[in-house]
Automatic annotation (TrEMBL), chains A, B, C, D:
InterPro entries: Aldolase_II/adducin_N, Aldolase_II/adducin_N_sf, MethylthioRu-1-P_deHdtase_MtnB, Salvage_MtnB_euk. The keyword Kinase does not apply. This is Methylthioribulose-1-phosphate dehydratase. Pathway: Amino-acid biosynthesis; L-methionine biosynthesis via salvage pathway; L-methionine from S-methyl-5-thio-alpha-D-ribose 1-phosphate: step 2/6. It comes from Patellaria atrata CBS 101060. The lineage of its organism: Eukaryota, Fungi, Dikarya, Ascomycota, Pezizomycotina.
């Protein structure tokens, strides 16, 4: 069962070989293992990176590091990484035995349109259920909206920065709105509608995909990870609220 | 508490002794421990291999490796493995202190009728609930069917191979159909109806057993594992959809 | 935060000091850690041994080993064990800093009335919910009953042994029946009704306690553990079936 | 991704450097890692300390140790701790790269008004759902109340001590009552209503915050942790009871 290819042009080796645990090629592996393990641990969220689903990408200086498609997340190695030049969009490194991730143009959209440095894609069942509940209760073009849940304070309000370059986060009395786009036969075909949603919702740090999952990005790996966790907490809570007949937006 | 027997004819020792982690005798143990641990971790799926339930088998060259019955999955050792000759169906190795798995003829069916090389059997509660919901809502002979869930793309479409010998996977707009057979008093008595279901559904890589669980196979261990994960994701999602009144097959 | 006392009469030291991982004093600690960890891992079942709830006891030759009350399960040490003489019911060892478990007379009942060698008590939420559903739907004196779930085959049918001293397990078409007793203010006051239930249900290997949890015993640690796992699987499945309007006993 | 600052006035180093695992600076880290890991493991409760939510504080002699805000719980180091003088309320130690926790005045309230030595704050989804169910079914000023669940015996009855200085715990037939306060835009603004609730409910060891979570304290770390676990068990069970139409307070 050889699933991690290592047949690749050796002169690109230096791009993924580093002792630094913070090097993106190492970080993606740590993150994928963590997600896989966490995934299996936190109740319904194992599916985030179940088997070979989901994915993640990190932008590091002039380079984009992308986890390959179809590799068991917990077995990912730095040498499995694809590396792309951010400017030319050309692959500086292509492990021969792997397929590039179909999410690549979507990850890239968060880097180019949002200046993000990390983008995470999951198949969270909570996200999928939210897209179905919103469609049925509010219509196909409605976004997911929720108010007055403490955890929304974990999501940035917009891209504005204060004097110290700090981002502002949503307030408890503000509204979290995540756009939902329709799924397509091929993941790369989501790119146009994802970019459209980014334009229609200039403040959003995430886009839900109907019957599919969610894309979440952040200024760095730490923020992308914690925003992904906070959103999944909110999606899960919202589904439980729906089961109990509790509205997402308090009347009063 | 001696539960792992090691009293066996020593001349079969070489069949299960290997330094290679990819050797099937080692792989089954890794898989069982992983499933057990994952099982305990991912919410409702611990039951997949709870206690001594479920099982797995690997076909390796001329040999079939089978985990014994009634052994705690997390404590399984290579020396606990049964080894059978694929052609003669004779045991090359029988740990005296263990019972052969009652699943053996079912595992074998996937190897002979489908040319699979790994077969996994679980008692997933999601699988059991699906078989009950389908029976009540669609009748005793209906299969489980679902459409337009991204994760079905993780399941092969059929056994056809392309020029490069690659298998095609279900498309997002295609329908996943898993046959359901009735349970029997003794597991081995499932063999005929399992084989019948394989004939009636020539494309399926899995068969659900009412009130019991599911059998999933694949071309290799990696594929069997990820297909098992993807199916369980879909079963779990489908149960949650049912709780929320969301149909498995969108009207439009 | 000293929670594991070690002030105890040293001449009883030999009772709990052993290099053998199978020695009961070590086994209970392993079991408690495993349960605690598993507990935290398997969805709703963490509460089985949450904090200081639940407990376990092993009968070993002339001695009974009992985990103390009020000790964090994951931090339990062999020196925390109480040891009682099976005949005289006198403590051979009492760690001064600990309270003996209030479950002691209940554990003892399974040893004396059932010749069990291990008894596990949990506060499984699934068990608690089952006792409430049975009371409401079938009345205060009804037992929990379920049929035709493959996993019931993991529960012994009665105490009869075959020629080889093997116990028979429930068949798929047979009925699992677990008596339910009312809870009392003090755990030790459950003893009479527990023993009454054991007499009224001479075949049962477990007794549910309303609004409290379950007691499960077995011929040895391995069997008590796997029977506890199988029952909790069944309790959890039965609660999910109830949520989905699926009857525990098929009509036909 | 440097998220754990270590730039701090070195002369405060001795406050957080200790080989003793029981030293509060080490205990908080152990606790946070444990909660994070457990969090990810136990089904819905990962959110307790998801990402950077929740927090904990320990009072140790004349000092208060407080985990910083916005640090990934699993990566917390002793050098990340804030240390405050209990009398003067002045910081003896402020890691420059961190923000003090907004929970500080709330933790402090449990130390000053209740003489607690450890306070834990979580965003448990079960706690959030309970606050919403109570508001809808019993009104905005109603507390959460439940009776006759064995696990309530894990919660102290009041602050009275017996001759040996032991605290009394709730009896099975007594009622657990946890006050609920309304959430505010800024966490520190909860202080007045939290203290009001402590006065209105002089026996309580916890306060729920609507749409936010819960604060739980104890005489020491061990008690705060197990009381937090017991309460979350009860919140989770109460939500499941509500789904199944089972009342929190038995009629008879």
């Amino acid at each position: 069962m050889t699933i991690n290819g290592s047949d690749h042009n050796l002169d690109s080796e230096h791009l993924v070989r580093s002792e630094d645990p913070q090097h993106p090629a190492n970080l993606i592996c740590t993150l994928c293992r963590k997600f896989y393990t966490l995934g299996w641990r936190f109740s319904r969220r194992f599916e985030q990176v179940t088997g070979t689903g989901g994915g993640t990408s990190i932008r590091h200086g002039p380079h984009i590091y992308i986890a390959p498609s179809g590799v068991q997340k917990e077995l990912m190695e730095p040498t499995d990484m694809f590396v792309m030049d951010f400017e030319s969009k050309e692959y500086l490194r292509k492990p021969k035995s792997h397929k590039p991730s179909a999410c690549t143009p979507l990850f890239m959209s968060s880097f180019t349109l949002r200046d993000a440095h990390c983008c995470i894609h999951t198949h969270s069942q909570w996200a999928v259920l939210i897209t179905l509940l919103v469609e049925r209760d509010f219509g196909p073009s409605a976004p997911f909206e929720i108010e007055r849940i403490e955890q929304i304070k974990g999501i940035p309000k917009n891209y504005a920065r204060d004097a110290n370059g700090k981002v502002a986060y949503l307030g408890y009395f503000e509204r979290l709105r995540i756009p939902i786009i329709e799924n397509t036969a091929h993941e790369e075909d989501l790119t146009d509608s994802l970019q459209q949603a980014m334009n229609d919702y200039p403040d959003t740090y995430a886009v839900l995909v109907r019957r599919h999952g969610v894309y979440v990005w952040g200024d760095n790996v730490h923020k992308a990870k914690t925003q992904c966790e906070s959103l999944d907490y909110i999606f899960q809570l919202a589904v439980e609220m729906h089961k109990l007949g509790l509205p997402w937006m308090p009347k009063d």
